[in-house]
Amino acid sequence: MHAVVARQAGGPDVLELTRVERPVPGPRQLLVRVSATGVNFIDTYKRSGTYKVAYPFTPGSEAAGTVEEVGDAVTVYSPGDRVATAEGVNCYAGYILVDEDKALPVPRGVDDFTAAALPLQGITAHYLINSSFRVEPGHTILVHAGAGGVGLLMIQLLKAKGARVVTTVSSDDKEKLAREAGADHVLRYEGFSTRVRELTDGTGADAVYDGVGKDTFDGSLSALRVRGTLVLFGAASGPVPPFDPQRLNAGGSLYLTRPTINHFLRNAQERRWRSDEIFAAAANGSLKVRIGGRYDLAKAAQAHDDLEQRRTTGKLILIP
């Protein structure tokens, strides 16, 4: 089989398509024939060395496909079942191993591409608005990068909760996508905190969801109401430098949290709660998943470059 391998940290050009041995499932693992793999910013962080990994390294934690073999101790799944995962390893490949307890059943009505595009970003959107900060009807929420994969999902899920959604984008085309997803107000990045204040009669947003990082962090804090919450969940523009926590006091007794998905998938019940809700919404059509780019597995480097240069909207997927 083929897999994408980085032999050292570096730019997208370190990603090479390589022939490797097909893996063999352990007692509680599934061997999954991959139909599509999701491309995420965390893959670029690991490839570049921002997050430390051992090389040679095959990126990818998100994929969907069909179970080909099961380990001796597997009890829930059988060959032929359709599954997805947001917690896989080495997913830029034709076959992957998935631990049985980290596999997500894919319901009817959800195609393979959607199944690969949804788990990580869908579960991320779910835990952000239900657990990192629990959104209630009437809240005013600022979401950065509203035309990105997480942003488009969050806008829809926030509107379903009855929130007022303000979002930022960088172009007219991205503004159109954010409005189609249901955003109430779409802003450009320059001066966004002032505009949020104007839209809330000086009060500020109840929460800001910031996956951009360094370039938006200061403005995100300034856009919050007294006792507002900044949920910093990514660093598309680079990591936020160390800062004085006294700024939270000066800004109005603000809250700051930096969540990561693994801490919101602590057990089978939590995993199924989140995945079942997002897959059900996709199956019934209430949650639209935009796939902004499909690339052959051999074009993984191009997918990374497009993502890092912010030339994309929605979700990018690789097809073996």
Write structural notes for this entry.
- The chain is α/β, with parallel strands linked by helices and 320 residues long.
- The protein has 2 domains: 2-118 and 289-319, Medium-chain alcohol dehydrogenases, catalytic domain (Quinone Oxidoreductase, Chain A, domain 1); 135-261, NAD(P)-binding Rossmann-like Domain (Rossmann fold, 3-Layer(aba) Sandwich), CATH 3.40.50.
- The protein is built from 10 helices and 15 strands.
- The chain has helices at 41-48, 112-117, 119-132, 149-160, 172-181, 192-199, 217-222, 246-250, 268-284, 300-308; strands at residues 2-6, 15-19, 29-39, 63-70, 82-85, 95-99, 104-105, 140-143, 164-169, 185-188, 205-210, 224-232, 255-257, 291-296, 315-319.
- The strands form 3 sheets. Strands 3, 4, 5, 6, 7, 14 and 15 form a 7-stranded mixed sheet that branches.
- Strand 1 (2-6) and strand 2 form a beta hairpin.
- Helix 3 packs across helix 4 (149-160) and helix 3 crosses helix 9 (268-284).
- The longest helix has 17 residues, at 268-284.
- The chain is globular.
- The relative contact order is 0.16.
- The model has no long low-confidence stretch (mean pLDDT 96).
SSE topology string: EEEHEEEEHHEHEHEHEHEHEHEHE
Task: Describe the main β-sheet briefly.
Answer: 7 strands, mixed
Query: Rg, please?
Result: 20 Å
What's the β-strand tally?
15
- Structural class from helices and strands? alpha/beta
Low-confidence parts, pLDDT < 50 over ≥5 residues?
A: none
Average pLDDT across residues?
A: 96
- Helix tally equals 10
Could you name the CATH homologous superfamily of the largest domain?
A: Medium-chain alcohol dehydrogenases, catalytic domain
- The CATH topology annotation of the largest domain reads as Quinone Oxidoreductase, Chain A, domain 1
